[in-house]
Amino acid sequence: AQSVTQPDIHITVSEGASLELRCNYSYGATPYLFWYVQSPGQGLQLLLKYFSGDTLVQGIKGFEAEFKRSQSSFNLRKPSVHWSDAAEYFCAVGAGNNDMRFGAGTRLTVKP
Amino acid sequence: DGGITQSPKYLFRKEGQNVTLSCEQNLNHDAMYWYRQDPGQGLRLIYYSQIVNDFQKGDIAEGYSVSREKKESFPLTVTSAQKNPTAFYLCASSGWREKTDTQYFGPGTRLTVL
Fold first, then answer.
1. Burial of B68 by CB count in 10 Å (0-12 exposed, 13-18 middle, 19+ buried)?
2. Are B108 and B90 in contact (CB under 8 A)?
3. Selected residues 24-43 of chain B with any CB under 8 Å from a CB in chain A
4. Along chain A (112 residues), what's the average pLDDT of each consecutive run of 10 residues?
5. What share of chain A is helix, strand, coil (3-state, %, to 5)?
6. CB of B54 within 8 Å of any CB in chain A?
């Protein structure tokens, strides 16, 4: 069965600094990969997704992610973090519509 | 404006009571889902429905029930058999054309057992 690991429970970065959130997955076939963001007490908002094609995926709010099959990774990046990016970020892998697996999340704190 | 609505935002339940969480979507999606979110954990699938009048158990269906009488609606009932129901509940919807269609989420309902 597929699984997702987000190694970092909590990350703190300064405003304006670059950001990379790690995501490692385990899945035998070509995965469908997603990054979602969740503000406190809110639902999940889709940032970006990878199904096939170009391994560098652009998303909303200036985020991007790179699929690396050899490393089983799908890390999320942003060149310059804004205070409004403080939230929890979830990586997910899909093996079917009824089989989405979510990581435990990484909480991002942004220092002024 | 297309989207998913969930109500209520906060719900309090006494032990032994059943409660029903509402989820409505106007995205014309075929599939709908219920997830449970606990602190420090990812989302876990409770039930999903691919089509009206059909639904399937997810990983943690015990103590929950659902119905899908209309395409737009997928209510979740948390029964008294659910031993630890305090959690944040998220409803989602998607198409069912690709292997894994993108799921879109509602704002959630926080259920607290008193």
1. buried
2. yes
3. 31, 40-43
4. 92 97 90 94 94 92 96 97 97 86 96 94
5. 10, 55, 40
6. no
